[in-house]
Amino acid sequence: MDDAKREVTIGLVQAAVTEDTAVNLNDTKRKVREAAERGARIVCLQELYRTIYFPQYESRERAPYAESIPGESTKRFGRLARELAIVIIVPLFERAGEGEWYNSAVIIGEDGTVGGVYRKVHIPFDPLFYEKNYFKAGDGGFPVFDTRYGKIGLLICYDQWFPEAARALTLKGAEIIFYPTAIGDIEGHTPEEGDWHDAWETVQRGHAIANGVHIAAVNRVGQEGRLNFWGGSFLSDPFGNIIGKAGREEGEVLVVKADLGRNRQVQREWGFLENRRPETYRLLCGDSPGDRGDKNNGNDQ
User: Fold this and answer.
1) Distance from the first to the final alpha carbon of the chain
2) Which domain holds residue 116?
3) Which CATH number covers residue 131?
4) In-domain check, residue 207
5) Would you please indicate which residues are annotated as catalytic (active-site) residues?
6) Could you tell me the pTM of the whole model?
7) Average pLDDT for consecutive 10-residue bins of the chain (301 residues)?
8) Which one of 41, 74, 208, 216 is at 20 to 30 Å from 256 when CA atoms are compared?
9) For residue 244, with 0-12 CB atoms within 10 Å meaning exposed, 13-18 middle and 19 or more buried, which class applies?
10) How many folded domains does the chain comprise?
11) Residue 161: which region, alpha, beta or left (left: phi > 0; alpha: psi -120 to 50)?
């Protein structure tokens, strides 16, 4: 059996941010050190950890928030990762070149080097989430990073609503999928469809169940403009059980032990991967809900 117990301790850094990017960086470094001192071997920061959530404004000068890879964040967290022998996931606003701006997450290995970069694939454009005005869609697919402590998949915020992304990472061998996030309620707005927070948590637990993998979501807290970020960072086991959860109002360093060996057990017992029928899924490759991908009136022969 390949599902022997294999524990790894995860740290999620949930924080409120200020307009001062240097203050945010230094505060986050202290929290990462705290997570490591409490046993965390993989530590994940929230989406755009160093900046306010500036995409809530339709048009704002973006250059002051951006940095290159490698850059200051990778340099500072690289030293820290090497000192503490931990893996750190650092989500930031990436300036990649002329006209190339991405909402990215960098994985830094325990040796302090950059192990890879994921660029957010799904970019929203809604009131107070005007991300298409700032970010280019990711161009590198869904990579899996093989670290000393486990195989890691990275997705960012809006990616969490798309089951295809989680499935792709699972098929490529991810054992735990991290979702750095910046999401909350809009001041003065009551959504007709229901509780956004409940939907956010539920859909990610669903990805854990459907794929038999651990899911880690880390969200910011605090009021920024008209957005009230609700925190609630959590770690789910491969059957959707929440095994650790942060509060909804305060910054917090959540440290939780995960048994990655349970993934194979759940995958084997429930058979969701083994019993897939990829030959029937051509519809999923369509460009829109109206593109059925065949000429047989929906019958996939």
Assistant:
1) 37
2) 7-276
3) 3.60.110.10
4) yes
5) 47, 120, 157
6) 0.93
7) 82 97 98 98 98 96 96 98 98 92 98 97 97 96 96 98 98 98 95 94 98 98 97 98 97 98 96 95 76 42 32
8) 74
9) middle
10) 1
11) alpha
